[in-house]
Task: structure prediction
Amino acid sequence: MKAVSGDPSSVEPRTGAGTAAEGRGWRPWHTLWVLLLLGWTVSAADRAVTGPVVTWMIDNHVGFLADAPHPHALGGLVGGLFFAGYMLTQFPGGYLGDRYGHRTLIVVSLLWAGVATMLTGFIGGLIAFIVVRVVTGLGEGAFYSNDRTLITATTPERDRSLAMGVVITGLSIGITIAIVFTPELIEFGKVFLTQVEAWRMVFWVLGLGTVIVGAGVAWWFREHLTFSGVGRATLHLGAYSAVSLALVMGVYWLGTGVGLSELWVALLEVALAVGLVLFALGRKGTEIGPVIKNRDLFLLYVCNIAILWNLWFFSYWSVAIVAGAANSSFMSAALTAGFNAGAGILGFPVGGWLSDYGLRRGWGRKGMMLTFTGIQAVLTLAFAWYLSAAAHPSLWVMGLLLFTASLFFNALQPVGHALTAELAPARLRGSAFGMENLIGEMGAVLSPAISGVLRDSTGDWTAAVWADAAIVVVGFCILTQVRYRPPVEA
Result:
């Protein structure tokens, strides 16, 4: 890492996406894909692990959920508050990436998330746990917009969607690791800790892995980083995060203090996101107006609410859903739920490749995204119907439905990311991706909390799955209204 600073434009080389040298073999951007895939893997594992750990706490009556009158609602709110933090740094993270360099913000995000995840394993009590998870989310929120923008800037346009699909495969790998290996890591924790404290080992191991990957990415990016640039970016992101943490926890304390339910607290957290959008529009309306006032971009942002709702409904609660429906063990449920997360390992890169192939054939990305979303909607409805109709749901049938629905769900996401990149001005892509995920994360904030409330109020997960299916259908309907014209040259 250089010891001298430079301006942000020198930190991020603006390689024309369509001017990269053609040819076969390993290219420089392929190495970048691998590094970003590793970043997605560890950061996704860090954020997804809360759901399986909360499920284990509820099942074993330990930790701060041992005596909770509505454990699933409270556990869902804990997950929602993480995403409240994650949500509130989406746009600032992209904006700071446009200013300080996207590689810089990626490194800051990874190291921040790793340290905060390890710290989670050392704290005790509900409030301290929530605070540290919110802080973790605030750091991780800076990754997405800078990752998507860096791919767009360095990958030839003909492979752009493929790149986004390959890289975000790390999301599925990380979620799968968190779901499948949490039981094993808890058992490993029992070697050194008591039964009620064994969950801490999960955060220590995953956090350490994130720190190691972050350090490796920083070393690889060293020619593009400066000590002063990283320091200023960290302080600037820290300032945004301090305000965001105060807002998130202020809403939580205010809501719980006056006796509001977990659902209403989650809704108030979403109101923060709406306020941030309005604040950004008021303060920087002229500068970022093209990515906020663009009708079709905004519709894509709203579609992302349904995408993030579905993603984190199943990623957070899939173990509990399978275990509750089939009356299976924690380990068996985790393995079956892993089919949902693991489908992305195939779906993400295949969806990205098909999107680029279709664009070259003149199909357009919108039609591809609509097709995948429609199939996912049908399969999600089928899963909801099966849970309602089957007296004794089969682990194999649930695993198959989860896998196939998730396959198309994950395939549609890189298509949507490439579509956003094409609709947004090149100089504001970081801000566009940040705004997309800021608005989309409203679904991630609400999904765990509302689903947990539905589970506690109805006694099973059927209503929550039907609600998820309905939201997917609404997202499909909104997507039909996006106007899209394929690039003249692809």
